[in-house]
Amino acid sequence: MKISTILDHIDSGHMALPEFQRGYVWNRDQVRGLFDSLYRRHPIGGLLVWATESKTAAHRGDGPLAAGVVKLLLDGQQRMTSLYGVVRGKPPKFFDGNAQTFTGLRFHLENETFAFYQPVKMQDDPLWIDVTELMQKGTAGLGQFVTRLTAQPELAAKVGDYVGRLSRLLGVTDIDLHTEEVTGADKSLDVVVDIFNRVNSGGTKLSKGDLALAKICAEWPEARDTMKAKLKEWAKADYHFSLDWLLRSVNTVLTGEAKFQYLHEKNAAEVQEGLKRAIKHIDTSLNLISGRLGLDHDQVFFGRFGVPVMVRYLDRRSGSMGEIERDKLLFWFVQAGMWGRFSGSTESFIDQDLAALEGSDGGLDKLLEQLRLWHGGLRVEPGHFTGWSLGARFYPVLYLLTRMGLARDWGTGLPLKSSLLGKMSRLEVHHIFPKAQLYKRDFKRPEVNALGNFCFLTKDTNLDIRDRLPEVYFPEVEQAHPGALASQWIPDDPELWKIANFRDFLEARKALLAAEVNQRMEELLHGDTGWLSGSSVMAPKPSTVPGGITSEEEETQLEALNAWMETMGLPRGMLPYDFADPDTGEQKAVLDLAWPSGIQEELSQPVAVLLNETAETIAIASQAGFRCFNGIAEFRRYVKAEILAEGPAVSE
Questions:
Q1: Which of 144, 269, 299, 312 has its CA 20 to 30 A from that of 638?
Q2: Which residues contact 364 (CB under 8 A, 6 or more apart)?
Q3: 215 or 466: whose pLDDT is higher?
Q4: What is the pLDDT of residues 368-405, one digit of tens each?
């Protein structure tokens, strides 16, 4: 079938995209490579389409389908979308991606190369031809291009060659592409999705969540867009979740199970109702976690897979919760996060916790008992604050204490409440003993960036303190705002404020922090403190938990990388990622930025970006199956070459 005919079929609704397909993910290098191959008449591969009845076809986009049999693209979406975008000058109706990827393609008549528009390089060079303009004007418009060229005397001798090249470029739409059809009444959605995954072995496959969503979209085409809209709403509040994560909560509401296979039996009406209930309960959970615990942004939102369990609990009960029940549920959430309940085998632990909610004896007590049996004692010891870096498991706990308690800013003396601080962008991590001063005295990174050396202050206060030592600025703070130091769990012995006693300071502050955590947990239990009784689990040694983000500069770079991934139509990574033993939840390392299930979830290799990390951290991640990148530029090249390229330069 000629490319021009395929584009016409897309316009008429005879060819479209199946609902289960992901969006457009190609980059400009791939578009340029596609047109270079077509111009040189190199093979670019055929198409695979699913021929099915229009009235039962679930397709992407708002455009209507033609009556009768339609063809849904299984293999070839990226190529056809790129061709349509360049030739028609606009994206097709089923488009979901970044249209700038195929906007502004130019062709150089002398060098016979393709590139995207660059004003300084191209605006005064008549040999750079706008490919979209040429395609839209067609053969009839060749005269205009000839006129432009002959107006330049130095080009007149080669006008004949240039016209031949323009005609060759125009002829791209006359190229025939082999089209193979999947037909037959036996080709159910399951069968077609399996075919799709097989032919896309080098490209974008479907995860279990995608497969579940594909089946939902077959009956309810707006499902994906409805869920994406809610995810964007949460993202504006600085909570970044994936479609799979939201679908997991829908699943727990409807089936009481974590595994997506149980969702397949539900019809569209049930799923719509389940989504409505899940969103309501997620909003409730986020409001509770943010309002009561102060965990108000993504980086401190540990134990996010505890939310589907909370959603199931809220869905099973009726009426409003009293303070005691509310706080007990939050106690479970905090404890699950602190001890890494969902840092290992997520699906199996969710299933265990969901089972604890079922039956006449199911509920919060059974959920807590299960957590205690799995982990041991739930009381925090000073050694649990031995961790270091912004990725340490107890980093969110330090933030929680700051927000739940009466911690005060050292510059203003005001409580660091949410109404004052807002999100992380207005709140800074402060090294109590300045980094520069500690490195000068040969302290190592794990000590310099120890949790005991962190506190949270407003940006202005952080800038005012700069690199001064505690023995200098602590007395000033105490004089201006009596009690402000104690509110941030600073030992009151001035001898410990001296840099020579830094290690003793850390030990004393860890004890104060542990006591504060236990006090806050007792408050959540409203006197039912039996859950905190029993022997505590020994804290791991610092050397067993390497890695982590050690500066705000690193954090900024990694946030920017996550934002870039979103612009590429790819999922954000986990920042930071708590790598733990899948069975015990014991923290093994903190990876700066990771995709533990792969960028193509469940279907590609786990990857991690590790900035300025030790050989030990890299070795742990590598042995766990992660492909590790030590630089952002190196990671971007990998994404462009192996994730977005989908195999060879123009293949899918």
A1: 299
A2: 313, 325, 328, 329, 332
A3: 466
A4: 999 998 888 899 999 888 877 655 778 889 999 998 87
Is the pLDDT at 479 greater than 70? The verdict is yes
Mean pLDDT of the 301-307 span: 90
Closest by CA to 11, choosing from 78, 106, 79, 91, is 91
Reported as half-sphere exposure (CB side, CA atoms, 13 A), residue 56 has a value of: 10
Residue 16: strand pairing partners:
72
If DSSP codes are grouped into helix, strand and coil, which group holds residue 214? helix
d(Cα 453, Cα 79) in Å, to the nearest integer? 53
Task: Inform me whether the pLDDT recorded for 603 exceeds 60.
Answer: no
Determine the pLDDT at residue 389.
Answer: 61
Task: In the chain, count H helices and then E strands.
Answer: 27, 14
Neighbours of 538 (CB within 10 A): 11
Give the single-character DSSP code of 382.
G
Pairing of strands 587-591, 128-130: unpaired
Indicate the helix (H) or strand (E) that contains 334.
Answer: helix 323-338
Confidence band for 539, pLDDT divided at 50, 70 and 90: very low
Cβ atoms within 10 A of the Cβ of 314, count?
19
Specify whether the CB–CB gap between 364 and 325 falls below 8 A: yes
Q: What is the mean pLDDT of residues 249-268?
A: 87
Look at the block and give the residue holding tokens 């909560």: 249
Angle between helix 346-357 and 243-255 (nearest 10): 30
Distance from the Cα of residue 318 to its chain's centroid: 33
In sequence order, what are the residues at sequence separation of 6 or more whose Cβ sits closer than 8 angstroms to the Cβ of residue 610?
Answer: 547, 591, 592, 617, 618, 621, 628, 629, 630
Q: In this structure, are residues 600 and 643 in contact, taking their beta carbons and an 8 Å threshold?
A: yes
Q: Exposed e or buried b for every residue in 77-90, given b needs 16+ CB within 10 A?
A: bbbbbbbbbbbbee
